[in-house]
DNA sequence: CAATCGTGGCA
DNA sequence: TTGCCAAGATT
């Protein structure tokens, strides 16, 4: 076990864990909904939801999810559509698909009990190295370090790690550093406090905006604080141009029912229900006719939805089913479609902008 | 290994 | 208003 060659040795390395554990016990968070349990199911669920997602966003989803699926067997037995509906709005929907697959793997391959080692956990869908370490350390007291966004920020500042942490070489160095800092001894409670302390320090005192260095247990040793470079560490992500895509969405109404189309299992909004789309006005008119819609498409106000990697300009169109036309209310093509009463939309997993669009429409129609 | 994959909050 | 990115994993 040697210090990472790319990083300078710090006198802090031997004291880091003990100081962090003490700080966590005194000043860390102890009452989040997924704390004060060693149930690997609850811990796993929270860790998956918290991937790239802030605590305040997760809490209501977590509560609802646990009510509906109180244990891994209940989740494994549920239809994927039900899981997607509960996940809708939380984003990164591959997490929900992998969550469902993972629950079934736990039931079918592990007898319904989560494995207790980092390596076995990391074999499961949706569980990578850091999430495996979080679950294993919280639920089973395993001696494995996490490395999430909080830890990267703390390490970059305290130890002065240069370079963008998303870059492979920098991330590798941080894994080595994080492992070298893990407490050499201590029981399960110490390990939990340590792992939680890494997260708490990054999420509370050492946030991205204005770190509260005066309250930090590492203030006197922290490279960023001592050199006044809190704003420059960790290095920012390299900027990239954000491309714009454009899509036409069809709100096809039959009375108080709307036509939904299930999205492909992979790609953006994979596995959610959405509105039928087309790449231009004429193609959407053609699709509307194929579904039994009237010829005239009413224009609604276009709007833009911004993703991390691109902007999507949405051109919404509304049409009614042409009741007098033979073959009205068809379900054409090989895509999966359903007519859904507007009052039942809550049971369907819709993309956030589609949810907003239909909610506003429902308000004006009813 | 760099790109992909959501959404909402906040500076 | 715009930019930035949060308890990352997968391909």
Structural write-up:
- With 366 residues, the chain is an alpha+beta fold.
- The protein has two domains: 16-227, Endonuclease III, domain 1; 244-365, Nucleoside Triphosphate Pyrophosphohydrolase.
- Helices cover 42% and strands 11% of the residues.
- The chain is built from 14 helices and eight strands.
- The chain has helices at 16-27, 40-49, 55-68, 72-77, 80-87, 94-109, 118-122, 129-140, 149-158, 168-181, 188-203, 223-227, 281-290, 352-365; strands at 244-254, 257-262, 273-274, 277-278, 298-299, 303-306, 311-320, 337-341.
- Strands 1, 2, 3, 4, 5, 6, 7 and 8 form an eight-stranded mixed β-sheet that branches.
- Helix 2 packs across helix 3 (55-68).
- The model is unreliable at 1-6 (pLDDT under 50).
- It binds a DNA duplex (11 and 11 nucleotides) through residues 46-58, 89-95, 98, 125-131, 134, 146-151, 166-168, 198-199, 202-203, 208-210, 236-237, 239, 267-270, 305-309, 351-352.
């Amino acid at each position: 076990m040697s210090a990472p060659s790319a990083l300078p040795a710090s006198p802090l390395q031997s004291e880091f864990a003990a100081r962090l554990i003490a700080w966590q016990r005194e000043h860390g968070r102890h009452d989040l909904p997924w704390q004060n349990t060693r149930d690997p199911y609850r811990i796993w669920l929270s860790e998956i939801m918290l991937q790239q997602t802030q605590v305040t966003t997760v809490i209501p989803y977590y509560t609802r999810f646990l009510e509906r699926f109180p244990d891994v067997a209940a989740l494994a037995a549920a239809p994927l559509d039900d899981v997607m509906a509960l996940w809708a709005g939380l984003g990164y929907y591959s997490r929900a698909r992998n969550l469902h697959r993972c629950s079934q793997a736990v039931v079918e391959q592990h007898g319904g009990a989560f494995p207790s080692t980092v390596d076995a956990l990391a074999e499961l869908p949706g569980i990578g190295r850091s999430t495996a370490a979080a679950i294993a350390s919280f639920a089973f007291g395993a001696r494995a370090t996490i490395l999430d966004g909080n830890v990267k920020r703390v390490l970059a500042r305290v130890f002065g790690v240069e370079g963008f942490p998303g870059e492979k070489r920098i991330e590798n160095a941080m894994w080595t550093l994080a492992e070298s800092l893990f407490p050499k001894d201590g029981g399960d409670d110490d390990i939990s406090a340590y792992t939680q302390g890494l997260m708490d320090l990054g999420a509370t005192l050492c946030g991205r905006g204005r770190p509260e260095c005066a309250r930090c247990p590492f203030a006197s040793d922290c490279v960023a604080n001592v050199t006044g470079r809190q704003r420059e560490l960790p290095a920012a992500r390299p900027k990239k141009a954000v491309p714009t895509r454009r899509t036409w969405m069809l709100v096809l109404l039959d009375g108080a029912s709307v036509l939904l189309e299930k999205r492909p299992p992979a790609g953006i909004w994979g596995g959610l229900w959405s509105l039928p789309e087309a790449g231009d006005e004429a193609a959407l008119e053609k699709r509307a006719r194929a579904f039994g819609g009237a010829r005239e498409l009413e224009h609604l106000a276009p709007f833009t939805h911004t993703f991390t990697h691109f902007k999507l300009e949405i051109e919404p169109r509304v049409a009614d089913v042409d009741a007098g036309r033979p073959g009205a209310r068809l379900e054409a093509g090989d895509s999966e479609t359903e007519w859904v009463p507007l009052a039942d939309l809550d049971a369907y997993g819709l993309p956030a902008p589609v949810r907003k669009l239909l909610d506003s429409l429902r308000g004006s129609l009813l």
